[in-house]
Amino acid sequence: MGVVDVIGGGRGDGGQIVDEAFEDALSRRYLAYALSTITARALPDVRDGLKPVHRRILYAMREMRLDPGQGFKKSAKVVGEVMGNYHPHGDQAIYDAMARLAQDFAVRYPLVDGQGNFGNIDGDNPAAMRYTESRLTAAAALLLEGLGEEAVDFRPTYDGQSEEPTVLPAAFPNLLANGATGIAVGMATNIPPHNAAELIDAARLLIARPEAGIDDLLAIVRGPDLPTGGVIAADPAQLREIYETGKGGLRLRARWQIEEYERGQWRIIVEEIPFQVEKAKLITAIADLLEDKKVPLLGDVRDESAETIRLVLEPKSRNVAPEMLMESLFRLSPLETRLSINMTALDAKGAPRVMGLREILRAFLDHRRDVLLRRSSRRQRKIAERLEVLAGLLIAFLNLDEVIRIIREEDEPKPALIERFRITDVQAESILNTRLRSLRRLEEMEIKGEDAALRAELQQIEALLGSEVAQWQRISGELANTRKAFGPDTALGRRRTVITGPMEARALVADALVAREDVTILLSQKGWVRALKGHLDDLDGVKFKEGDALAFVARGETTTRLILAASDGRFYALAPDKLPTGRGFGEPLRLMVDMDDGAEAIGLFFHVPGRQRLVATSDGKGFIVAEDQLLSAKKAGKQVMNLSTGTRMILCREAAGDRVALIGENRKLLVFDRAELPEMERGQGVKLQTLRDGGLADALVFSSGTGLYWVDSAGRNRVVEDWRDFEGKRAGAGKPAPKGFSRNGRFDARPA
Q1: What is the mean pLDDT of residues 48-70?
Q2: What ranges do the domains of the chain cover?
Q3: Which of 165, 155, 148 has the alpha carbon at shortest distance from 57?
């Protein structure tokens, strides 16, 4: 059914009423809104790295002559100018955007020079716009350079009263230098700041060697260079993937040092905190951890910051390792954050795309070439116009008396001048507009000198416009001059963020924060788990809920991971120190792991690095897997064994030995060489035994030197005589089990 949609001004002023499906009207309007959000609000332009609001702020300040070195003006006046002429949005939104451009802890190269309270790293808001003043910085001037020389296109403003630039000339790659964040409809961008000198060097490398690849660029651009410094932990392969694809994430840590004082005491001083972390909230988070006793190595925290960051962390004891204390805080507090990278921007045609480092630099260089060509073409026209005027002035100088006579005697001197001296309309107009006192000072040599200089410049411009090689040489020279403002020897250009290799100390923290004790883990048949102190061999006194009994027992230490194997082929890692203790019945296992309702536990054991396990399914398939591959930090576990419909994983046994023994539900026993069994990380495995009646009952890896044993219900070892008689090839059917073999068809009749 259609809906009435009024288009135009309505019935009273000539509007047209049409019927339109509600779905069509809604989708069309939402698409228009989405495109407006993407192109006019949230995403920056790859050429100048600015969103429309930032571009309009800088342009309005330029029009107000708020250049570097000039006086400041009230921020409220700037906001009013932007809102009234260029940006039809709220004044507070404009002021927030302008204030961010002035915050040296938010942008790597501030574009607004602020005077007054523009906020701080503690998270305090800027003062009201009526109290603060602002002007452009030198970096902003570089972005605006050439704007009055027809370097870029202009478009009408929202009210059609004036014009605004569609993009700024941008003398340096601002998109990567200052970064950008934004959330549009269906897409977002998060580009961290980088070092401008490194970016310029990489751009010049692309000019010198257009075939240069990502590895060549990363030899120059070492990684993000954040306003607040810090330390980024990443290996070269990780950085390469991020800058090649335009997406990824990095670990960002605070920078710290040890400060020693009397009697062997020491404390940690945090000098730089992660980018976009508010200092006040960081201190609150650490204080909360301290109050909740989640960082037992930390004694106290206090803020001694003034103009620079200085957070003091006092250890609980001087015997604590500083590295271990910081690792615990990195793990639990915002002293370490994840720096997400998503380099989405609008290309030269206005289309949003995810771009890599090389593509962004290439787009910037193409823009600079377009700016160079437009500025050079304009200068070429201006020189041609001036040469035409100079030629007319020279004629007037050589025939000054005749020119004066014509002007005095002729009613229409302009046509007379044109006819008498065969000059153009422009030349005649320039002669008529020349003041008499100027004619008195005119000298032939001056005119000829200016003419010669302009002709030489014109020749250079024509050579530039006709040679692509010369154009790129000029751009490279311009970038080299721009780099002087961002050189590594300047306070603004010095690299602030340190790039290090991957940090592996995190795994040590868990052991340091958990007391190392012997523990016995019990899992009941109904899925209740608990931890008992010590290694308990006698479990007769352990009680369970009515109708429940012991299913699995594991003995180990609280600092060792506990691995649970489930019948659906998934494995779960548990922390023994987090399991319920005491005299109760424990807690349901399913509160700690996301195990499917149809799955059940088939094994519980402590992880031993380097050890291997045999996993097998009910239909007789299996493989060898390393225990290291079974660990997972996720509550949902890790799928290791892929199961076909109607099958389940029935066992997960230690694989120590050179022979594999299998027993089917048909009581057929098969022994084969372990070398026939593949080692895999994940999959269905291979066929272990041909089972015509029933499925697989049990499997075991044993050593041919010790022989094959099975354990009866009383816990006694029973030897399998002449086990070599049952040897065959993998996937064989096997032979009937020897007399006296376990009635339940298992090698181990005790709880596994």
Answers
A1: 96
A2: 1-38, 43-151, 255-334, 373-483, 514-605, 608-752
A3: 165
Among residues 509, 520, 615, which one has the least CA distance to residue 571? 615
Q: How far is CA 609 from CA 230, 518, 626, 635, 708, in A?
A: 34, 18, 8, 21, 26
Q: What are phi and psi of 249, to 5 degrees?
A: -150, 150
Residue 438: the pLDDT is 65
Q: Are 573 and 562 in contact (CB under 8 A)?
A: yes
**In whole angstroms, what is the distance from residue 661 CA to residue 745 CA?**
12
Question: What architecture (CATH level 2) is domain 373-483?
Answer: Orthogonal Bundle (1.10)
pLDDT over 70, % of the chain: 94
Reduced to 3 states (helix: H, G, I; strand: E, B; else coil), residue 106 is coil
Place of tokens 């037992």: 296
Instruction: List the beta bridge partners of residue 7.
Output: 16
> Which comes out higher in pLDDT, residue 661 or 709?
661
**CB neighbour list of residue 158: distance below 8 Å, 6 or more residues apart:** 86, 87, 88
N- to C-terminal Cα separation, the chain:
67
Q: Residue holding tokens 């795309």? A: 353
CATH number at 608-752 = 2.120.10.90
How far is residue 582's CA from residue 703's CA, in Å, rounded to a whole number?
40
Find out whether 672 and 653 touch, Cβ atoms under 8 Å: no
Q: Angle at the Cα of 572 (from 570 to 573), degrees rounded to 5?
A: 155
Q: What is the mean pLDDT of residues 137-159?
A: 95
Contact 256, 525 (CB under 8 A): no
| CATH code for residues 255-334 | 3.30.1360.40
| Distance in angstroms (rounded) separating the CA atoms of residues 300 and 395 | 88
431 exposure class (CB count in 10 Å sphere: 0-12, 13-18, 19+): buried
**Against a cut of 0.85, is the pTM above it?**
no
Assign domain 43-151 to its CATH superfamily: Topoisomerase II, domain 5 (3.90.199.10)
**Where are the strands (E) in 157-210, listed by range?**
163-165, 180-183, 188-191
Tell me the helix, strand and coil percentages in the chain, rounded to 5.
Answer: 35, 25, 40
Q: Where are the alpha helices (DSSP H) in 333-399?
A: 357-398
The catalytic residues are 131
Instruction: Reduce the DSSP state of residue 436 to 3 states and report it.
Output: helix
At 466-501, the pLDDT tens digits run: 999 999 999 999 999 999 999 898 989 999 999 997
